[in-house]
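Appendix B. Raw example, untouched.
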Amino acid sequence: MELTDQKIVSAIEALWNEAEVLFENNDPARYALKLEEAWDLLPAPKEAYGESYDIALAIAETYLILRDNPALLRWAITLQQCDMERADDGEREFVLGKACFENGDLKGAETHFTTAMHKSSGRIFQGVDEKYLHVFSGLAAMVEEELPAGVYEQIEALSEAGNELADADDFDGAIAKFSEALQLLPPPAQEWEASTWLYASIGDMYYFKADYQAAANNFYDALNGPDAQANGFVHLRLGESLFELNQLDQSLEYLMRAYMLEGADIFAEEDSRYFDFLKKRVDL
């Protein structure tokens, strides 16, 4: 929802500017407090406005830097209700997952990281602190420790560029970046863990382009990567692509694998047709 009271908008912008000066001066504690002042200016219900998401996110991430874990968790929880109309790419769940992790709730971290992985097709985890990736084995496949540093940095940069293009719905541009990154893997590519999420990212873009055959081909390739068989998202999207191709027996196989790996929650953000199909064909 848009904040229309221009006096409040101006006051919040002024506080943001003051906060940015504090951050630039390496004073994150006062930066967070200044943003909390901005939060206090939001009319009720505070979480309804677009500004609420940006403020809560910035505060949560600052408390992560400050290692104030209770405050981090409090603001991460608040973030979950902010500006529910905005595009949902898994960022809010990722922040909550980190908050749970830092507060010792590894089960909660796993739950929220799983949701974030599905919503972002794994892209949100690229380049993050590896301690988060090891919460459960399904994310560990994204850790790259053996590639030469220079190659990995190039792949990471291309992947981030692909993510930005994907967020802008430029699926062809994203495919080009992910494919360029894939070409940097020393052959055979499938021996490298990065191949799983790069092929999956390419497949995901084709899925959103409704080119389901190309999507399926790339998800099949993704499954050839190390530990990829434990990645519920790859099975899910492959099953969905095969469903759209009317290859129903094969679709059922992969949708069932996704369900067996991660339960019904993996279907929560998907078109209900897929889970309805699974439930009609299998006694869950």
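End of appendix B.
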